[in-house]
Amino acid sequence: MATATTEAPVEIGVIPSFDVTIRVRRFNPEVSEESTWQDFHVTMFGTDRVLDALHKIKWEHDGSLTFRRSCAHGVCGSDAMRINGRNRLACKTLIKDLNINEPITVEPIKGLEVEKDLVVDMNPFYQAYRDIKPFLIANDKPEKERLQSAEQRARFDDTTKCILCAACTTSCPVFWTDGQYFGPAAIVNAHRFIFDSRDEGAEVRLDILNDKEGVWRCRTTFNCTEACPRGIQVTRAVAEVKQAILRGRA
Amino acid sequence: MSVVIETPRSRKRPGFNLEKYGWMYMRLSGVLLVILIFGHLFANLMVGEGIHAINFAFVAGKWASPFWQVWDVTMLVLALIHGTNGMRTLVNDYAEVEWIRRTLVWLLWIVCATLIVIGILALTTFTPCGDASSISLLGKDGANVAALCPVK
Ligand code: HEM
Ligand code: SF4
Ligand code: FES
Question: What is A138-189 written as a DSSP string?
Fold first, then answer.
């Protein structure tokens, strides 16, 4: 095996490390009804993300720290949290991009009930998603491929990118005060089917969203667009659904 | 064993709701209000002597003209409904107890209706020329008003 090499081993760039304080909002209903801030001091590297810091805390400091994560690469949408006051995915937020001279605050996303530490009850969020019928509605038998032109596909491309992380819905001030509001994520996913040329359920979905708690609650605050880790033009999608309801069709 | 996939539940059938019309009204009235409010400000504050010309007689003169009567009634009605509907939105946002929410929304519309009635009454029945004694109450302005009024 060992093929001796005459070249000197490549000098691997040293990744700068730094000390940083992670200030986590802790909540444990079995201990107290109140949530409290807890500071953790950790040494992290320039390549580390907030998720890595949470891992380090959980694995080396306090195993009781509770949060969701799965893919750790911005795909599954499990780890949306409020970092320094903004909704982001912990796995996509490099610590070095934040101000490391100040404590970095990490809180659960707002507007959903906190179950423990950073874990919230996502059920109301998923319920709104289910309510807009997030599946293809087509009456013809699926005997052959449903063709679609590139332009037709482009019409709803943006909203296909959603990973249901809830960053948008839980950044929305209307949702904070009115948990019945469908919220941007549900509307984004309705948009994904309403403007799909293969789908025939646009009218049903537009009718569902033409509700007291539907699109008209949106006040174009743009928090959702800013929060979306997938760069989806969320507010625009909501506006397009409003327009479609006014037109009476997609 | 079969897996039962629940039929997605849709919210209670969205019956008739005014939200869409409320949303459209805010935008339509908004566009008209831009014209009406800025026209109003321009006529009152910029034309001629501008703000220095405003006194009782100036208002009396404006309201003697059907043009400004229609303008002001339109502005009054549009803005009050617009403002009240906007406040209704805020109440819906923040009121958590249903009966309080309903009460506040009712109060808003009652105040709105009252103000519209009083406003329209003032705008349409306004007569600057009462008897001589009421004109004298206006002090310096009285002379201007007297000049407006037909000689008794
Ligand atoms: C200059 C002309 C005006 C324009 C173009 C305008 C436009 C608008 C629009 C488009 C909205 C809806 C915002 C949304 O749904 O996101 C709104 C809301 C509102 N407007 Fe106006 N408006 C005007 C004048 C007024 C006046 C004179 C009043 C007060 C009588 C008023 C009070 C309100 C209130 C209370 C809201 C609700 C605020 C909220 O939803 O957060 N507006 N306006
Ligand atoms: S639209 Fe963006 S922010 Fe909202 S749930 Fe989907 S991926 Fe998350
Ligand atoms: S852990 Fe999957 S998106 Fe962050």
Answer: --S-TTS-----HHHHHTTTGGGG-----TTGGG-HHHHH-TTS--HHHHHH
